[in-house]
Amino acid sequence: MEMLLVNERRVPRHAVTVECQVVREDDFTMLGARGVDLSTCGMLLVADAPATVGDDVLISLRIPGREQWIDARGKVTRIADELAAHEGRRGVGIAFELPPGGTRHALEEALCAYPTVVSSRAPRVDYAATVDMISLL
Questions:
Q1: Count of other CB atoms within 10 angstroms of residue 121
Q2: How far is residue 104's CA from residue 127's CA, in Å, rounded to a whole number?
Q3: pLDDT for 53-109, tens place per residue?
Q4: 114-123: average pLDDT
Q5: Phi/psi at 6 (nearest 5 deg)?
Q6: What are phi and psi of 86, to 5 degrees?
Q7: Handedness of CA 86, 89, 90, 93 (dihedral sign)
Q8: pLDDT category of residue 12 using cuts at 50, 70 and 90
Q9: How far apart are CA 32 and CA 19, in angstroms?
Q10: Whole-structure pTM over 0.90, yes or no?
């Protein structure tokens, strides 16, 4: 019997590089200007400056393939080492909330043109679901 795994992503990420400006809200330090693995809920930022999990950030990003820019508030959710091997830089995972309206729809529509990304993190085991499944046997 295999353990059940948790799907931690709310929405798929897409393999696209996006022009952006991400600044830390408390001191307006520019954290980076290039995002990768974009979704409608967040992105992996190629960091030019150090960040800490929990930092509040202001984000301005260009919708891929369009001239339209969108603004959002976000939070640093993790410091990722995936980019270190490829580029000698750190990645900063950023979760953001888009303002209501057509902004989210415009980003969703643009992202459909790009392939989805498989997470580089190892999946976690969902122990509760696994125990429930075993109890049904």
A1: 11
A2: 34
A3: 999 999 999 999 999 999 999 999 999 876 555 566 788 999 998 877 778 888 988
A4: 70
A5: -90, 135
A6: -90, -40
A7: negative
A8: confident
A9: 10
A10: no
What are the residues whose beta carbons fall under 8 Å from the beta carbon of 111, sequence distance 6 or more?
A: 14, 16, 38, 39, 40, 64
Distance CA 130, CA 111 (A): 34
Tokens of 55: 């930092």
51 DSSP 8-state letter: -
Instruction: Supply φ then ψ for residue 49, to 5 degrees.
Output: -140, 155
Instruction: Confirm if 41 and 95 have CB atoms less than 8 A apart.
Output: yes
Greatest alpha-carbon pair distance for the chain in Å reads: 56
- 56 contact partners, CB below 8 Å, separation of at least 6: 24, 25, 26, 73, 74, 75
DSSP string, 66-135: SS-EEEEEEEEEEEE-HHHHHHS--EEEEEEEPPSSHHHHHHHHHHTTS-B---SSPPPB-HHHHHHHHH
User: Model confidence at 122, in pLDDT bands (50, 70, 90)?
Assistant: low
